[in-house]
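Field: COMPLEX_INPUT
Field: COMPONENT_COUNT = two
Field: RESIDUE_TOTAL = 872
Field: MODE = joint
Values follow.
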Amino acid sequence: MSWIIPENKLDDQQKDFVENVDINQRNVWIKGFPGSGKSVLLAYTIKKIKRQNPSASIVVVVFTHSLIKMFEAAFKEMGERVEVITYFDFMGSARRYDYILSDEVQDLTPSVLREMNSRGRHVIVAGDQNQSIYEKAPRTNENTVSPSEINSLLNSREFSLNIIHRLTRSIIDVVNKFLPHMNIFSARRDMSKQSTQVRICNAQSSDEEVTYILQEGEKAVNNGYTVGVLIPTGKAIITFVNTALRKKGKPEWVATTNRWGSIDFSSLNSHLSRHGMPLQYVGNGNGNFSDNSRKLAVMTYHSSKGLDFDNVFIPFLNRNLFITYDEGLSKTLFMVAMTRSRNNLYLTYSGLKHEYLQRFSSDCNSIDIHSSLNQQSTTFGGGMFGGI
Amino acid sequence: MKHYLALIRKADFTDLFKYGSLHINNDMKTDFQCPVEELPEHPELFRALSYYANSFDNAFAYLIIHYIKESSKGLSNDVYIEELQHIYPLDYESKNNLEFSFDERIRIEEPLWSDSVLELQKRMMINECKKGAQNIHKIIGFDKSDFNCEDFVTDDIIKEIVDELYEDRRPNGKISIWAYLLRYERHDYYPQNILGCFMDMVNIACNRRAMQEVSENAINNTAIFKLMDSFRYPDPKFDDIYNAICTDESVKGFSSMVDQYESRIDFIKTATLFRFLRDRYSEDFIYEPNLIDSCKKYGEEFELATYLLGIVMGHMHTYDCLYEKLPLSIFKEKIIPKEPIVDSLPEQEEKQPETEQAIEDSNPASDETTKEPEELQESAEGVQDGVILESRINTLIDSPSVNDPVADKDADSVPHDPSNKPMRTLPSFPFMMVKTKKDGSPYQNCKPVKITSYEKFFEYEKKDGGKWKIQRKEKKQADIFDQN
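Field: COMPLEX_OUTPUT
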């Protein structure tokens, strides 16, 4: 089904943009969290331009080929013919346009924005610095833009979309406590929307964390629910996987590197598969979701961007947690990981919990992993539910 | 000189600022005499202002303006920008929003009556819930029934669940079991079939017993759960599980417990059917006549289950289906193509598959042996069913099948073409359509499109650039109500 929604389903902020923002007066930067409808507004903007000026020359500049396909499909459905190209192709030409629109602006570089400003009469960009997980552009190695650069290079007016449709209210509450400056809020209250249960789980050791994740994760995947285990670094993934192998009485994986000198996750997956483990590494071309009906997907925070799972486990959240050397990026990546869950989010730690958790843990359910793992033999049966 | 307050839409304020004046409806304004600082002590002013307010999603859709009018100036219902004294958001969230989106020179005051606004929103939601129930009953045809669902789902219960929702509370205490049911969310890993719905029902009853929400861990050693476990096999049937609960001596305690909380109707049946419907319509309600017919044998319990479904889905998730079912007088007439669907579209060059839906990046991994992209998974079941039923469907779609006995039984008639062309038939909604190559074989990496209404069907049928083939999606759940 198309991601373009009919006008009667736009939320109040989106309607406000479509009805009231004059894109001919000044360049515009549409800011907003994933799921706030930035791309939808770009598509509606094109509709509006075409209505006002059918002969206007328009181009949409995006970061990836998959975004090209996404926009092309939407324009086809809307009955509009619009050129959609990558920023790389844009930089390779010299054509001028009446309107240049661009998505995921936080991943572009200053030179691309400069070029847009000089070759477009009007520029409308969408994106949010809070989601930038690239520090440099892949091909040019140039630094990606900062928010102040976006404003100064484009002399743009900001329009913020703060209503997030993709996230549940409970996750939004957690994000707002973790990163208060995000200032996001959920769409209208809706009785039919299920909330995400956020559980802070304390274990006595990291081994217990892994055992608990395996136990709960297997239960979930065996009943057809998807599970993501999100871990900050490749090294920590190896720790997790080897602990899991040990707990299942299987030989640990001896880390090897591929011909590029990186961890050979393909070999890790073969090892896991050979020993019948319900785990697979997903990322960098390894692992396969369609083959994942009975396996927990283990991946980095970084690789999880853009994905959703019914259940997400984020282990090892103690004081020693290391994500990246950049504190801002670390917070962004942790926020990306936390917002991948639809139904249950488990944040597990042993020892002293990381300060990230302190910011919102009082609002979450708590689970004592040690008691939970030893519960089966002690508490079931009688008590309140005896006799039924 | 007179002081006024008016409730206006945000877009109206933009006009007022832009054009310098705005005409205000009498119903949306009121005068007042008290000092401005004392306004918060007069929530009755807000009640007067909002009495005729239309429904809104977010409180920042509206704002309150304070202006002073000299009787001599202009028309009394026109307000001029120079007359404006204060702009009040409806609540604190709106204050942020308005400050973000208005001209930065504009001063936004603190909200005056945020508590009253919350009450207004709750009242709107209660109405929205009731409208949802009425919509579904109209769609199904239960609106003329004598059975009164409101005896079970009373206004008090709806108020309770709306209060909980707005106050971010989960149900607890000695409240109606229907409130526990309506607010229930599945966070345990129950099977994703009808057995899971029975387990939900057990969980809900246990929540009521515990007077708070409990997890599977707390109840999975009970006799009723052990009985449930005996049905952990593929495609268990509703009647089999239900009959076992009614006859198995070991779970009499459970039935008695449920009777304590609701003895006027069969809660076990109603709650399980409700949970089944909730799972099936996680987004918007879709009218599936075959399914509805197969469930009507459950009588008043099914009627109540659909009413409960409407309460939860509300008007917002049911109006589209209702409009389609009526249909609305303002809708365009649907003209039925004379030619069979598969032949009615222009030919397309073979070179590129259609990107109608999520087609994966054109990587070469799209041959028979490669796994389908993730997006295809959800519809894989339907596609398989489609293959099984393909010959029958082709019969359905390739001929004007007014006499086709299968079509007579299963298909929905497309509204009749006024030019007396033969009536076409379609499988019942929802069904899948998939783009095909010239030879009629589907593209391997093209996601089937879910057709939920005539409108959607016509929309896709008109699309250029390829042939479309109907694949009947016979959801497995549809036969879980079969009689043994």
